[in-house]
């Protein structure tokens, strides 16, 4: 004989697919608890109460089947449970199944009153007496309406899989440039609305507000290509332009100078996620490396001119044995010769080209040097992993990248 804890209080039989309620810890058969909930909702109650008698309301989104209890029951009463499982064929409700997550495919009205908004989530709880209607318990009713709603199948859509992190009707934005062929169809951070599952596996349909000319507004996207459009910590939003209000430091190194402009990418998902954002800054904006390089080019240009002349003007003489002897003019002799021939302006000949070259080198080598210093000081750590700065790292966690842009997680 089975222990009393393995007996469902509703059907007085061994638990089949047991669900354990958090209010009292009692377990019931999944089908029994679903039927109990449907009866109470049909009676007009906003929610069913626990059948064990504790009096607490239970959510119509029932808990998951208890895997541990199920394994015990299967090991002790596997044959009996399998026979009962065969007797309980899953009912097809106009293409939907019992307790399936669905959403309204459009605004639903009662007379002239809007009752259910597009995208409102709900649970299929059964077939209505009318042949072509489905009984659904929606999460939200407008104008104080409540209870079970009877809808036609074309007014419902299967809800988006939970792995996408969004639901039908929810506002989202593109997490990156979405490309069709070789053209950008939807730029990063463009807003859109989730329409529902796509015909392609592991994709959903999204209607974007604006797209490139000649591109469709409705696209089939993967989970990583969109983000929920919500306020981040501190009231910031994805793709919002921000400015560093102070120097962002790592130890004694300035990674991002005060006044640098960046763009919010997401809320940081690691440690201290409740106080941090991931921001992409546009490299160094103070121009110190470029200015220093240009200044050095101007100051050293006369020496570069003299050096070049010394390299190309060589004095050759023949020795008695027939071999030629090459002599390079002395530095000061070449300097005097150049000054006498062309004046001071001649010492800065080609200065414009060298100035441009030095400025470009400053823009490229400055950030490269900073990254090299950062990577060499942390050479034992893989490049794309987060720096471990201890229990309270202060104000910055840095993700070095081998490019001009720097990805910084900033503590607010």
TrEMBL record:
The keyword Amino-acid biosynthesis does not apply. Residues 8-51 form the RING-type domain. GO terms for molecular function: zinc ion binding. Its main location: membrane. It is a multi-pass membrane protein. It is found in: Membrane. Pfam families: Mito_carr. The keyword Zinc applies. GO terms for cellular component: membrane. InterPro entries: MCP_dom_sf, MCP_transmembrane, Znf_RING, Znf_RING/FYVE/PHD. Solcar repeats lie at residues 282-375. Keywords: Membrane, Metal-binding, Transmembrane, Zinc, Zinc-finger. Coiled coil: none annotated. It comes from the Eukaryota. This is BFAR protein.
């Amino acid at each position: 004989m089975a222990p009393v804890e393995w007996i469902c209080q509703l059907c007085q039989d061994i638990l089949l697919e047991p669900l354990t309620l958090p209010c009292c810890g009692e377990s019931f058969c999944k089908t029994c608890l679903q039927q109990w909930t449907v009866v109470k909702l049909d009676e007009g109650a906003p929610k069913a109460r626990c059948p064990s008698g504790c009096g607490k309301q239970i959510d119509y989104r029932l808990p998951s089947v208890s895997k541990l209890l199920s394994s015990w029951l299967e090991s002790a009463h596997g044959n009996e449970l399998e026979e009962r499982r065969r007797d309980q064929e899953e009912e097809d409700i106009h293409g939907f199944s019992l307790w399936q997550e669905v959403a309204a495919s459009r605004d639903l009205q009662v007379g002239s009153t809007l009752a259910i908004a597009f995208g409102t989530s709900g649970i299929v709880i059964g077939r209505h007496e009318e042949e072509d209607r489905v009984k659904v318990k929606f999460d939200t009713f407008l104008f104080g309406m409540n209870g079970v709603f009877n809808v036609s199948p074309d007014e419902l859509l299967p809800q988006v899989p939970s792995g996408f992190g969004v639901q039908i009707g929810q506002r989202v934005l593109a997490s990156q440039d979405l490309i069709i062929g070789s053209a950008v169809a939807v730029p990063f951070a463009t807003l859109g609305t989730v329409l529902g599952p796509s015909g392609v596996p592991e994709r959903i349909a999204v209607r974007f507000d604006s797209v490139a000319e000649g591109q469709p507004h409705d696209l089939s996207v993967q989970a990583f290509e969109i983000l929920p459009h919500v306020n981040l910590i501190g009231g910031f939003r994805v793709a919002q332009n921000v400015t560093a209000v102070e120097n962002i430091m790592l130890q004694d190194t300035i990674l991002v100078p005060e006044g640098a402009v960046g763009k919010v990418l997401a809320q940081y998902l690691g440690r201290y996620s409740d106080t941090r954002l991931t921001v992409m800054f546009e490299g160094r904006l103070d121009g110190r490396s470029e200015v220093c390089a240009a200044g050095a080019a101007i100051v050293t240009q006369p020496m570069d001119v003299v050096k070049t002349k010394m390299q190309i003007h060589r004095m050759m003489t023949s020795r008695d044995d027939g071999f030629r002897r090459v002599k390079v003019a002395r530095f000061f002799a070449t300097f005097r010769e150049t000054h006498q021939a062309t004046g001071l302006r001649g010492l800065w000949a080609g200065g414009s080209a060298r100035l441009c070259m030095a400025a470009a080198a400053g823009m490229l080598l400055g950030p490269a040097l900073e990254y090299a210093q950062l990577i060499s000081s942390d050479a034992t750590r893989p490049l794309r992993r987060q720096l471990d700065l201890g229990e309270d790292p202060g104000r910055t966690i840095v993700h070095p990248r081998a490019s001009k842009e720097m990805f910084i997680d900033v503590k607010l």
